[in-house]
Amino acid sequence: MERLAIDNGYMNIVRIENGIPEPVEDGKYHIPIKKMPWDIEVYDKNSGGTLPERDKILSIAAGGKYFAGDEHEIINNFLKYYEEFDVAYSWGNYDGNYFKDRCKTLRKFVPVEFLSLDLLERYRFRGGRELESNTLKNIALLEGLPIKIQRPGKVADLTSDELKEYNMRDTEIVKWIEDGLEEDGVIKGRRRYISLEQEMADLAGFNIQFASQETHLWEMIYLRELAKLGKPKALPTMGMKVELQNELVGGWVRTPPPGVKRWVISADYVGLYATLIMNLKTCPLGLGIMSDKVKEYMALRNAIRHEMKSESDENKKQELNQRQTAMKLVCNSGLGVVGYTRYGAGSLFSSKEFNKVTKKGRLVNEKSGDYLKKKGCRIYYGDTDSIFFSPPMKKVRKWRKNKQAKKSVVEYGLEEAKNLNKLLEEDGVEIESKEVYKDILFFAKKGSVNEGAKKNYAGRQIYADGDYLKKPKYYSRGLRKTSYTTATKKFMEDAIVLALKKDTVGLTEMISDAYSDVMSGKLDRDLVITRNVKSNLDDYKVETDAVRATRKLIDKVGALTDFKIKFVYIDKKNVEPVIEGESFPKMTEDGRKRMWDRDVFSQLQRVLDSVGLEYGEGSFDKSQTTLEGFFK
């Protein structure tokens, strides 16, 4: 099937035929994407989970339609309805995979253009979300949407009316997550990740299903541009790149000293690598294609962002934001594609072009650092396109004495950003003061108390993205993990707050109290471990605790109903799955001790290492209560 694509409604419309892009007349075509949310319900009363070669499809809810009754009729009518859309999307990949496998079993033809995208994957990847549970019920609660309808027992036991209501609600939630639900003038959900990827695909001029694969995206951009230049339509293969073995030079990184620092300014280089790609005429083929396209996309992005400032219609504003975000993601992925050597690496790899950009980025960072050091600033941390520093201590002491520290530090950061921009003018790079932290905790690297970890910090912001904050806002990076138990998250939050306040007495007592609470048993339900189960259990080479818990769950309820497994340790070695609606497993003292050691304290230890505290057997040395020596 031919796929027409347009560059964000601006120019360079192309026709994709047999994988080869051909330029056609600009402005001739317009392709609004039509999205279809859908959800499938399957007979689930057999043992061993649902199997497409055995268990029939009971119903399909798609868009505003509902298909039930004879299975062949369901499939035929659903596929006919799909013809009205460009793409389907569901929560997870179960629906699409099961539908195709079931059609194979029934020897029913599924058109090659049938495409179902996984909204859950995009919710996690595009939104950067770490989820305790992937279920629609949990996501609906997070987004403030009407929750999933809960029915006891098996889906196959529902009446026809109950099945329809249950199936339709799931589809509604999926649609609300993508396109939003307006209640009392407030829009809930509306993440529009499918639309975002369509914008990215349109930039490249190819099918939406590849929008998350940056290598293929840029290869398609290149194929299109090569066709315009009358060049060969084939890109070189990886095997032709003898420079593949060359050493790649990474971005500039300054390892932070662990501990709490005061009055720290975080400055970011604006689109550092995209800017350097443009300035250095980066192109793996030496034709200037990548640098020209990044320049084009960045100019369009800036124009859209300018238009957003005067746009009052929230719907239109969000559409504009979608477009500028797509352009940003495509531009930012350029260098990664040039230097990507792992599985899926494409024909645009070039260590020469990659190193040219990263080396220039390092020089820019070192140049900025040398300037700040000469001004008496302390540089604590830097990672590729950001630098964390504090003003000279003499100035800070003066500002604090005059009770003007907050305003003065912010103004200092803004002023030094202007000075740095003058310094970096010949490099064509811009820097801006993004955040100011009243205090920030740099975490120690695992297993070390002297070396800090990259991209792991937490602090209280008093200024962010051009705004003074009325109240300090806690912000952390690198600490969100799906593996944290509820108890661990709460303890970590409390420990970080106390560390930032330099309250060593409160910190030591809080961890001692946490140990007592865990061992008493009153926090058992907050010690549930959540793990991903992505493969067939027999594919795991090691019988992990999560795999053992999953086997027990399947033995009890017949199937794994979520992408994750929840379990607890009932003693030192044995685990039990936590099943909704059933009694909570009984944990022993040995089980709680194991949870404390492996989950709770293993994380709290990071805070203690970062501030120089040591932990005794179940308690702390209460004589060590002064600040000296604990916070650097």
Number of strands: 20
Please report the number of helical segments.
17
* Radius of gyration over C-alpha positions, nearest whole angstrom: 28 Å
Which band does the percent of strand residues land in?
A: 15-25%
Q: How widely separated are the two ends?
A: 64 Å
Which class do the helix and strand fractions yield?
alpha+beta
Q: TL;DR of this structure?
A:
The protein has 632 residues and is α+β, with helices and mostly antiparallel strands.
Task: Give the arrangement of secondary structure elements.
Layout (H helix, E strand, L loop, with lengths): L2 E5 L3 E7 L2 E4 L11 E8 L14 E6 L2 E4 L2 H12 L4 E4 L3 H12 L10 E3 H7 L10 H8 L16 H20 L1 E3 L2 E3 L4 H12 L9 H15 L24 E2 L4 E11 L2 H8 L9 H21 L4 H25 L12 H24 L3 E6 L2 E5 L2 H9 L3 H19 L7 E14 L7 E13 L2 E11 L8 H15 L3 H17 L8 E4 L12 H13 L6 E6 L5 E3 L11 H23 L21
Parallel strand pairs: 4-7, 7-8
Antiparallel strand pairs: 1-2, 2-3, 4-5, 5-6, 9-10, 11-13, 12-14, 12-15, 13-14, 15-16, 16-17, 18-19, 19-20
Helix pairs in contact: 4-5, 6-7, 6-10, 7-10, 8-9, 8-11, 9-10, 12-13, 14-15, 14-17, 15-17
